[in-house]
Design goal:
mainly alpha, elongated, 241 residues, two-stranded antiparallel ribbon, Zinc finger protein, two-stranded antiparallel sheet, Zf-an1 domain
């Protein structure tokens, strides 16, 4: 004989089983969960001091239901965050590329120009190219050493004249030197005609300008030097001699 099917004692409308205390599977699962929570709450001990321990037992089913609902809501609110490209929202997992702007991108948008990066690369490079802090101390030491080397004895051997400036003056001189070094610009050798970088391979013409290999000849850069006049002058000098 099979089990006698009776309706669930909770009144949900489904059939219950004797193994589940005449409850359906869902109601029995909720019943077990309530029992576990009630047992855990009954074991809570709050101690006002080290001698007195008070055991709080919660027998109100409404409070247990409220706690159960709050716990279930917390579990429902938990979301698994997935790594996605900030530009195309593509899943990247552990293969994403972190940019200096702080976002994660896929392989197609990993370059700064591919995702309109907002990071100031030029500003960071300028910051790195600034003079180090030790340079100021180095200049200060040079000034002090130079001033100490200029110490000379006067006619009276007991009096020593030392033209050593104060620390404020040293700081002012050091700051001015640092400003001068910051204002210095590195000049690059360029062709006067096409503005091409030539470096150390440029050709200096008699007109005084620097040109590349394509414009090194006088006829290619409209040279203003008077070659005929210089030749006549040299020829006249040879005749006089």
């Amino acid at each position: 004989m099979g089990d006698v099917l009776n309706l669930c004692v909770k009144g949900c409308g489904f059939y219950g089983r004797a193994q589940n205390r005449n409850m359906c599977s869902k109601c029995y699962k909720d019943f077990i969960m309530e029992e576990i929570i009630s047992k855990s709450l009954s074991n809570i001990h709050l101690s006002s001091d080290t001698t007195s321990i008070t055991t709080l037992t919660f027998n109100d089913t409404n409070e247990n239901d409220a706690i159960t609902n709050s716990l279930s809501d917390q579990f429902k609110d938990l979301k698994i965050t997935k790594n996605r490209c900030n530009d195309c929202n593509k899943k990247v997992g552990l293969t994403g590329f972190s940019c200096r702007c702080g976002n994660l991108y896929c392989g197609h948008h990993r370059l700064p120009e591919a995702h309109a990066c907002t990071y100031d690369f030029k500003g960071a490079a300028r910051q790195n190219l600034k003079l180090p802090l030790c340079f100021k101390d180095f200049i200060l030491e040079e000034i002090i050493c130079e001033s100490l080397s200029n110490i000379h004895l006067s006619s009276n051997t007991t009096s020593i004249i030392a033209p050593i400036s104060t620390t404020d003056e040293n700081d002012a001189i050091t700051n001015s030197l640092c400003d001068q070094f910051k204002s210095l610009k590195v000049t690059t050798n360029r062709c006067k005609y096409c503005n091409k970088k030539v470096g150390l391979t440029g050709f200096t013409c008699r007109c005084g300008n620097l040109y590349c290999g394509c414009h090194r000849l006088p006829e290619t850069h409209a040279c203003t030097y008077d070659f005929k006049g210089a030749a006549r002058q040299n020829f006249e000098l040879t005749l006089i001699c």
